[in-house]
Amino acid sequence: MSDCIFCAIVAGTAPASVVLDESDVLAFMDIRPFTPGHLLVVPKRHASGLAQLDPEDGAKVFAAGQRIATALRSSALPVDGVNLFLADGVAAGQEVFHVHLHVVPRTARDGFGVRANAQSPTRTVLDGTADAIRSALGSDGA
Ligand code: 5GP
Ligand code: ZN
Predict the structure, then answer these.
(1) Chain-wide mean pLDDT for the chain?
(2) Does the beta carbon of 88 sit less than 6 angstroms from any atom of ligand 1?
(3) Which domains are delineated in the chain?
Protein backbone atom coordinates (compact mmCIF):
# COMPACT_ATOMS: atom_id res chain seq x y z
CA MET A 1 0.00 0.00 0.00
CA SER A 2 1.60 3.25 -1.14
CA ASP A 3 0.80 5.46 1.88
CA CYS A 4 1.62 2.84 4.50
CA ILE A 5 4.73 3.57 6.59
CA PHE A 6 5.33 -0.10 7.41
CA CYS A 7 5.09 -1.03 3.69
CA ALA A 8 7.72 1.67 3.07
CA ILE A 9 9.93 0.08 5.75
CA VAL A 10 9.41 -3.36 4.18
CA ALA A 11 10.26 -1.90 0.75
CA GLY A 12 13.40 -0.27 2.18
CA THR A 13 12.26 3.25 1.24
CA ALA A 14 11.86 4.32 4.90
CA PRO A 15 14.54 3.74 7.53
CA ALA A 16 14.24 1.15 10.28
CA SER A 17 16.50 -0.69 12.70
CA VAL A 18 15.89 -4.25 11.54
CA VAL A 19 16.08 -7.16 13.97
CA LEU A 20 14.86 -10.03 11.77
CA ASP A 21 14.33 -10.19 8.01
CA GLU A 22 12.59 -13.32 6.74
CA SER A 23 10.84 -14.01 3.44
CA ASP A 24 7.36 -13.05 4.70
CA VAL A 25 8.07 -11.21 7.97
CA LEU A 26 10.13 -8.22 9.13
CA ALA A 27 10.91 -7.18 12.72
CA PHE A 28 12.30 -3.75 13.59
CA MET A 29 12.64 -1.42 16.55
CA ASP A 30 9.64 0.75 17.48
CA ILE A 31 10.59 4.46 17.14
CA ARG A 32 8.77 5.31 20.39
CA PRO A 33 9.57 2.31 22.60
CA PHE A 34 7.45 1.58 25.67
CA THR A 35 10.53 -0.08 27.20
CA PRO A 36 14.11 -0.59 25.94
CA GLY A 37 14.00 -3.26 23.22
CA HIS A 38 10.34 -2.72 22.26
CA LEU A 39 10.03 -3.84 18.65
CA LEU A 40 7.40 -4.63 16.05
CA VAL A 41 6.91 -7.74 13.92
CA VAL A 42 5.01 -7.19 10.66
CA PRO A 43 3.92 -9.34 7.72
CA LYS A 44 5.63 -8.14 4.54
CA ARG A 45 2.31 -8.44 2.67
CA HIS A 46 0.13 -5.46 3.61
CA ALA A 47 -2.92 -6.23 5.77
CA SER A 48 -4.64 -3.33 7.53
CA GLY A 49 -6.14 -5.47 10.29
CA LEU A 50 -6.66 -9.02 11.51
CA ALA A 51 -9.67 -9.56 9.23
CA GLN A 52 -7.47 -8.88 6.19
CA LEU A 53 -4.45 -10.88 7.43
CA ASP A 54 -3.63 -14.18 5.71
CA PRO A 55 -3.67 -16.72 8.60
CA GLU A 56 -0.36 -18.15 7.35
CA ASP A 57 1.21 -14.70 7.60
CA GLY A 58 -0.33 -14.40 11.08
CA ALA A 59 1.28 -17.68 12.10
CA LYS A 60 4.66 -16.50 10.79
CA VAL A 61 4.33 -13.16 12.62
CA PHE A 62 3.58 -14.97 15.88
CA ALA A 63 6.40 -17.49 15.36
CA ALA A 64 8.86 -14.63 14.80
CA GLY A 65 7.56 -12.80 17.88
CA GLN A 66 7.93 -15.98 19.95
CA ARG A 67 11.49 -16.51 18.70
CA ILE A 68 12.47 -12.89 19.38
CA ALA A 69 10.89 -12.97 22.85
CA THR A 70 13.01 -16.01 23.68
CA ALA A 71 16.14 -14.34 22.29
CA LEU A 72 15.45 -11.17 24.28
CA ARG A 73 15.66 -13.13 27.52
CA SER A 74 19.22 -14.19 26.73
CA SER A 75 20.23 -10.83 25.26
CA ALA A 76 22.31 -8.09 26.88
CA LEU A 77 19.10 -6.10 27.55
CA PRO A 78 17.43 -6.14 30.95
CA VAL A 79 14.53 -8.57 30.35
CA ASP A 80 12.64 -10.40 33.10
CA GLY A 81 9.49 -10.94 31.03
CA VAL A 82 7.89 -10.13 27.68
CA ASN A 83 4.47 -8.92 26.59
CA LEU A 84 3.16 -9.68 23.10
CA PHE A 85 0.54 -7.12 22.17
CA LEU A 86 -1.53 -6.48 19.05
CA ALA A 87 -3.98 -3.60 18.60
CA ASP A 88 -6.71 -4.34 16.04
CA GLY A 89 -8.92 -1.34 15.35
CA VAL A 90 -9.05 2.25 16.58
CA ALA A 91 -10.92 1.28 19.75
CA ALA A 92 -8.09 -1.14 20.58
CA GLY A 93 -5.50 1.61 20.16
CA GLN A 94 -4.34 0.79 16.62
CA GLU A 95 -2.61 3.79 15.06
CA VAL A 96 -0.74 2.22 12.14
CA PHE A 97 -3.02 0.27 9.83
CA HIS A 98 -0.59 -2.43 8.81
CA VAL A 99 -0.86 -5.38 11.21
CA HIS A 100 2.00 -5.45 13.72
CA LEU A 101 2.79 -7.48 16.80
CA HIS A 102 4.41 -5.48 19.59
CA VAL A 103 7.15 -7.35 21.44
CA VAL A 104 7.70 -5.53 24.72
CA PRO A 105 10.53 -6.57 27.04
CA ARG A 106 9.53 -6.19 30.67
CA THR A 107 11.27 -5.59 33.95
CA ALA A 108 9.69 -5.10 37.36
CA ARG A 109 8.43 -1.55 37.83
CA ASP A 110 9.16 -0.49 34.22
CA GLY A 111 5.91 1.48 34.18
CA PHE A 112 4.35 -0.36 31.22
CA GLY A 113 0.84 -1.68 31.71
CA VAL A 114 -2.51 -2.27 30.08
CA ARG A 115 -5.26 -0.59 32.05
CA ALA A 116 -8.23 -2.82 32.75
CA ASN A 117 -11.38 -2.70 34.80
CA ALA A 118 -11.86 -6.42 35.43
CA GLN A 119 -15.34 -7.61 36.44
CA SER A 120 -16.46 -10.89 37.99
CA PRO A 121 -19.52 -11.92 35.92
CA THR A 122 -21.68 -14.87 36.91
CA ARG A 123 -21.33 -18.24 35.10
CA THR A 124 -24.67 -17.52 33.37
CA VAL A 125 -23.28 -14.30 31.94
CA LEU A 126 -20.02 -16.04 30.92
CA ASP A 127 -22.00 -18.85 29.22
CA GLY A 128 -24.15 -16.29 27.37
CA THR A 129 -21.06 -14.44 26.16
CA ALA A 130 -19.44 -17.71 25.07
CA ASP A 131 -22.66 -18.55 23.14
CA ALA A 132 -22.53 -15.23 21.29
CA ILE A 133 -18.90 -15.77 20.28
CA ARG A 134 -19.49 -19.43 19.27
CA SER A 135 -22.35 -18.25 17.03
CA ALA A 136 -20.05 -15.75 15.32
CA LEU A 137 -17.48 -18.51 14.78
CA GLY A 138 -20.13 -20.48 12.93
CA SER A 139 -19.53 -23.70 14.86
CA ASP A 140 -20.04 -25.07 18.34
CA GLY A 141 -16.46 -24.08 19.18
CA ALA A 142 -15.25 -27.67 19.17
P1 5GP B 1 -0.30 0.77 17.34
O2 5GP B 1 -0.78 1.83 18.28
O3 5GP B 1 -0.85 0.95 15.94
O4 5GP B 1 -0.47 -0.63 17.88
O5 5GP B 1 1.28 0.94 17.27
C6 5GP B 1 1.95 1.67 16.31
C7 5GP B 1 3.40 1.67 16.72
O8 5GP B 1 4.18 2.02 15.61
C9 5GP B 1 3.71 2.70 17.83
O10 5GP B 1 4.30 2.04 18.94
C11 5GP B 1 4.66 3.69 17.15
O12 5GP B 1 5.66 4.17 18.00
C13 5GP B 1 5.22 2.86 16.01
N14 5GP B 1 5.58 3.64 14.83
C15 5GP B 1 4.84 4.60 14.22
N16 5GP B 1 5.48 5.07 13.14
C17 5GP B 1 6.65 4.38 13.06
C18 5GP B 1 7.77 4.43 12.15
O19 5GP B 1 7.79 5.20 11.20
N20 5GP B 1 8.79 3.57 12.38
C21 5GP B 1 8.79 2.70 13.44
N22 5GP B 1 9.84 1.93 13.59
N23 5GP B 1 7.77 2.64 14.32
C24 5GP B 1 6.71 3.47 14.13
ZN1 ZN C 1 1.43 -1.67 4.77
Answers:
(1) 96
(2) no
(3) 5-115 (3.30.428.10)
